[in-house]
Each structure stands twice: as C-alpha cells, then as structure tokens.
Amino acid sequence: MIFGDGKRIPVSLCPMLQLGQYQELTILRETDPGLFLGDEEGNEVLLPNRYKPDSFNEGDTLRVFVYLDNEERPVATTDEPYITLNEFAYLECSAVNKFGAFMDWGMVKQLFVPFKEQARPMKKGSWYIVYLYLDEVTQRLVGTSKTNRFLDNSTLTVAKYDEVDIMITHITDKGANAIVNGKYKGLIYIDDIFEDLRTGDRLKAFVKKVRTDNKIDLVLHSPGYRSIEPNAQYVYEELSAAGGFLPFHDKSDPDTIKNELGLSKKSFKKAIGSLYKDKKIKINEDGIELI
Q: Which of 20, 153, 257, 263 would staple 85 via disulfide (CB 3.0–4.6 Å)?
C-alpha cells in the first residue's frame, strides 16, 4: 500500500482491504498515477489511470475488485475476474516455472498456484478446477486444484427437491461429479444424464436424494411428484419435428431409444405415459403419434 508520504508498506503490515472481492469504495482524490479510493475504515487503494471512468467526482462510489499487483501492492481494478475469493472456477494454465503454475483468471497479474497446491502437475494450455483462497500467513491470493478440502458434506443446508447451482468437476463411468452451491460434493448418476456434460459446466440442478451418509444425488430436471414429467416436452418436440410420428413405443429396444432420443427406456416410458395421459399422443403398435 502507498500512503500519502509515498512510502510503500509491505502488504502483510497494512490494514487490509478485502482482497479477492468486489467492493464499493469512495473516490478520495485524483493523483498522477490514478484515483485513490477508500473504505469506511480509512483504508486506501489506487485505481490506476487505465481503469479511471470518463467522468467522476470526489465522493462518488465505484464498484471495484481489489487484488495484489506485480509488486505485491493492493490495487483496484474494474476488470472482472473469472473467480473471486472462496469460489471455484475452471481455469486455463497459461505458464509454468520453477515456482509453480500461473492461471489465466482474467486479470493483468495471473493467479499463482504453487506446486504444493496442485492435485497433479499442471501443464501449460490445460484446464483445471481451481479454488481461490487467501493465504493467512502471506496475505496473498492463492489458487489450488486440491479442492476436496474446501468441500464438506458433514452438515448440509440442502434437501430433497431443492434447486441448486452446480459445477461439473469430472466425469466417470459412474456419472458426473459436481460441486453443489460452492460447498458440497454431488453426483449425477449416468442413468440420469441425457445431455452432453463437460468439466467446468455450470448448471441448475435438483437434489434427487440425500443419502444417509450425506452424499447428494442430483438430477438436471426437477424429480418426483413436484415435477411435470421433464422429458415429455422433449419427446413432444421430437414428435413435432418428425412430422407427428416416431417409430418407438413402450416395447422398443432400450438401446435404440437411447441412441435415437438420448433417453433411457424408463425415462421414455414415463414421458410417453405423461403425454398419453394428457391426450397429446396415441400409442400404436408401430410407434407413437401426435393427436
């Protein structure tokens, strides 16, 4: 931090603004390098000229992101990072040196991930799920791909049928693993996946079940009696696109249904059952037909 006398004080010795977060700060004064902004506790930070608004007055408030520049000084910016403090993001590794890896997080200064914080050695050009935290010793923002320690299912604030925000972390034969509400681990079982999912995808999902060991089962459509059959609309649209007839019915081969519609036979039968009940289709021996 730079005080009025021009002296630079090590960041670890300064009263600290909230690094890694957006803040509403007040314009205090204009100087040659830029605008000095302040908070209610008397902390000050520079907003360099490159981020200065076209018009402003002292006393105006600006929404800025605060982090450390290349000289380890707090600096404000109007750039928007891909990740903020205590959050997860899917980031690309842009460089690796003898100290660790550097991630592109949308800022001038790249995010450092030390070797000790890498779940597996990072490579330039590869993408990784990264968590951003503040190192309490150095007071620096640090990235880590060892994300499991920041997820804890021991105490849950979600329940069956709740809508949640998820980010896909990796795909296995069992299904798609996900971070739930930025706090918990969850899984979409392979039989409940009917669309292309990839690591880093951010989606809305629903809690299908909370198991006795607090593992969370997820689905991408609202489950159970609280939902209108989610695949019924999809089948209806496929029927419309095909001219009102599809050569599938409740006795069709499961693999054929999966290959042609991307649905399990169980989901397909529920969908056409819902459409039949609503008098939208006829179920014939050779297929289903729009009414």
A: 20
Instruction: Please name the residue that has the structure tokens 């999912």.
Output: 197
DSSP code of residue 104: E
Within 10 Å of residue 53's Cβ, how many Cβ atoms?
11
pLDDT digits (tens, 9 = 90+) for 59-69: 999 999 999 98
Q: Which residues contact 155 (CB under 8 A, 6 or more apart)?
A: none
DSSP 164: E
How far is the C-alpha of 42 from the C-alpha of 145, rounded, in Å? 35
What's the rounded Cα separation, in Å, for the pair 58 and 101? Answer: 40
Which strand (E) or helix (H) includes residue 121? Answer: none
Largest CA distance in the chain: 88
CA dihedral 37, 11, 107, 51 (to 10 degrees): 20
* Contact between 89 and 125 (Cβ < 8 Å): no
Q: Roughly how many angstroms between the first and final C-alpha of the chain, as a whole number? A: 72
- The pTM of this model reads 0.72
Name the band, by pLDDT with cuts 50, 70 and 90, for residue 229: low
Measured CA to CA, the distance from residue 130 to residue 84 in angstroms comes to 11
CB 177, CB 238: distance < 8 Å: no
Return the structure tokens found at 74: 């707090």
* C-alpha to C-alpha distance for 36 and 34, rounded to whole angstroms: 7
The rounded percent of the chain whose pLDDT value lies above 90 is 62
Read off the pLDDT band of 85 (50, 70, 90). very high
Amino acid letter, residue 201: D
- Residues 282, 276: Cα–Cα separation, whole Å: 6
Residue 225 is predicted with a pLDDT of: 38
